[in-house]
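Recall that a protein's primary structure is simply its ordered list of amino acids. Everything else, from secondary elements to tertiary packing, is in principle encoded there. The following example makes that idea concrete.
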Amino acid sequence: MAESDAEELSDLPPSAKLVFKVLEYNGPMTQKGIVEESMLSARTVRYALERLEEIDTVEEDVYFADARQNLYEIVQPETEGEPEAPAAADD
């Protein structure tokens, strides 16, 4: 995580930090899973996810097992200056 991301994260409420840590430890989860794991209310988790999405720390995706739910995961920042993996050579 870049320094600017850490600074932005430190400005968030404790509930958003907890949701971030739950996603960091458990990987992609649904909102329901985050509620169960964090023991926060659904409304608090929803607000925390909104705040994390505002600073581009968490992204929302379709949960294919149940399309009524969304899957949330931490955004992996692209590192600048890191070379791309070379393409495989055909022999």
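The radius of gyration is 16 Å. The chain has a mean pLDDT of 85.
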